[in-house]
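Entry 14. Structure prediction run on the chain below.
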Amino acid sequence: MVIDATIEKIPYFNAPIYKENKTQIGKVEEIMGPIHKYMFSMKTSDGVKAESFSKGDQVYINPQKLLPLERFTQPSAPRGGGGGRGRG
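Output returned:
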């Protein structure tokens, strides 16, 4: 099942996905597409059938399981490293 994301943050792999009533229906399996308009596939939980959903249904992810977009778009600053060389 492929879900078109409407949020700006990127979900963790294996982040739980919920229905509006907070019932877990699956987990994020794969993230694909351009960074500003990405989609992700969902592996459904046992007993949940993909046919029970229709286009336009909303699903939810815990905000603590999301990464900021800047983590993927801005290069990381070089780390200090190589400082103290120990006693000699």
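Helices lie at 70-73.
Filed with the rest of this week's runs.
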